[in-house]
TrEMBL record:
Pfam families: DUF881. Keywords: Coiled coil, RNA-binding. Residues 53-87 form a coiled coil. It comes from Geobacillus icigianus. It comes from the Bacteria. This is DUF881 domain-containing protein. The keyword Transcription does not apply. Belongs to the UPF0749 family. The keyword Coiled coil applies. Gene3D superfamilies: Protein of unknown function DUF881 (3.30.70.1880).
Length: 234
């Protein structure tokens, strides 16, 4: 009986120890599996994050390339627009100069005023017509002013153009059909120094007029205003 009891006790102890070992092994295996499973999930998330980051970087590079392309296109359009504006500005200035040349625009600027008057002294034995201003005298001044760079010219305030005509009609001259009596003030817009110098050259227009007994006065002016041709007067 004692031997059997001891055998039972020993068997019980062995079973207890074996059961404890199995329990410990199960718990350890469960923990290890849980630990490994958590690390696998974490790595999976990190992989997803890295993949998303690489995708964003690739998309960012693509957007930067598109931005550079758009900036180049914009620069090309700006250059094209600038050339167009320069061209339009040039055409506008050309149109302005043309209107000024044909007398269709009111102009203001520096220039000269040339006054031609009949001679103040007429000998009794001479003909009076030899001492008055004639159409050729006015034309000589107008022509010299234009070839010297005058932008606009007027006679007694009446603008003239390349189509204008001047004729004598008794004691007066007619400018495009409008009569004017002496003295004749020929106003011209342009460089005052150049215009005055051109008129005053030795043997030039002024000397010829004086030789023809015409009183001549040339004045530089800072502000001359010339109305358009056929502009209505207030």
């Amino acid at each position: 009986m004692k031997r059997q009891a001891r055998s039972r006790i020993l068997l019980t102890i062995i079973c207890f120890i074996f059961g404890a070992m199995l329990g410990f092994s199960y718990q350890h295996a469960s923990k290890e599996a849980s630990r490994r499973g958590w690390k696998d999930g974490e790595w999976s998330k990190e992989y997803e994050y890295r993949s998303a980051l690489l995708s964003l970087q690739k998309e960012n590079r693509s957007l930067k390339q598109q931005l550079v392309q758009k900036q180049e296109e914009l620069a090309a359009w700006e250059k094209k627009l600038s050339k167009k504006q320069e061209s339009e500005a040039g055409l506008a200035e050309e149109a302005k100069q043309l209107r000024m040349y044909i007398g269709k625009a009111r102009v203001k600027g520096k220039g000269v005023a040339v006054t031609l008057s009949d001679s103040s002294y007429i000998p009794s034995e001479a003909s009076a017509t030899d001492y008055i201003v004639h159409e050729q005298h006015v034309w000589s001044v107008v022509h010299e002013l234009f070839i010297s760079g005058a932008e606009a010219v007027a006679i007694n305030g009446q603008r003239i153009s390349h189509r204008s005509y001047i004729v004598c009609n008794g004691p007066v001259i007619e400018v495009d059909g409008t009569p004017h009596a002496a003295p004749f003030v020929i106003s011209a817009i342009g460089n005052p120094d150049v215009l005055a110098s051109a008129l005053g050259l030795p043997g030039g227009v002024v000397d010829q007029l004086v030789e023809d007994h015409v009183d001549v006065k040339v004045e530089k002016q800072e502000a001359i205003v010339l109305d358009p041709i056929f502009a209505p007067k207030p």
